[in-house]
Amino acid sequence: MITAGEVLKNKRESLGKDLNTVSVDTKIQKRFLEYIENNQYEKFDSEVFVSGFIKIYSKYLGLDVEKLLAIYRRSNLKNGKREEEKKNVIQRKNSFKIGITPQIFAIVLLVVFFLSVVGYIGYQIFKFQTPPQLTIVEPLDEHRTEENFVIVKGNTESTSSVTINGEPVETDSLGYFEKEIELKEGVNTISITSKKNSNNQLETTKTLKVLYVVQADDEITEQEEATNEYKVELKISNAASWIKLDIDGVNKVSQILDPNTQQEFTLERELTLVTGKVQSTQLLINGEEIKISSSQNTGVGQITCKIQNTGLECI
């Protein structure tokens, strides 16, 4: 039995038309034309599309549309069964879908609420059993100063109490504290302890060493002036930065320094400074700020200063 696809294909070939031309003229995709000519109707989503394309294709080739549709229906009786089977498959899939009822929604809310409560309780237990956090902003450990006092600044958890060298220190609502400590000549040890008010057995302690050097008014002599010593100040402002500082052939700093820190050194011959963040690093020599050159791509800066007969030269 001849099929509708064969009739269409034979007519197209007799007219000398290829599928690309037919596709452009009829606005039917080439693959759909191939399906029809090869009687591959199962590749269409619906019989409606097949009938519509056959109708357009037949009319384009000058064939009897109704006759072609009749041939298609006789040669494709199984098509109806295929559509019915497809509908059954869709119905079976839909039968497995679970509708979101008010009862299910309420159960989901209860489960989420329960998990939130359990998570909160677990977090509070963890906090209760963990020592308090303690951060010392200044001074740095092994800080050297010529003043007879130092201001200790830091912060801890708002629910903790702080002592410095055994004396209580007030904290604000956010846990920040600040206290002036009187120094004695030489090395001074400062012990800062944060203890949880809810659990006195949990505490965090940090110890700093501060060197207080007494300088007399007449200490600067003509001999010291001849050495051409320079005072170097290194300051870190709003962001932590990795610093490497060599002075007179000795490495003074090679670490990440926290914001709002300051260190002082004495320069006799030469210094080299490398910083990971030029924007946060300030170098002063005898009170004068020295500009640090940097790479535009990385932000890393480096400078070398030497004491010459004509004074200080930095490159």
TrEMBL record:
Lineage: Bacteria, Candidatus Dojkabacteria
Domain Cytoskeleton protein RodZ-like C-terminal intervals: 238-303
Signal peptide from the UniProt entry: none
Origin: domain of life: Bacteria
Spans through the membrane: 104-123
Annotated protein name in UniProt: Cytoskeleton protein RodZ-like C-terminal domain-containing protein
A GO term for molecular function: DNA binding
InterPro entries attached to this UniProt entry: Bact_Cytoskel_RodZ, Ig-like_fold, Lambda_DNA-bd_dom_sf, RodZ-like_C
Keywords for this protein: Membrane, Transmembrane, Transmembrane helix
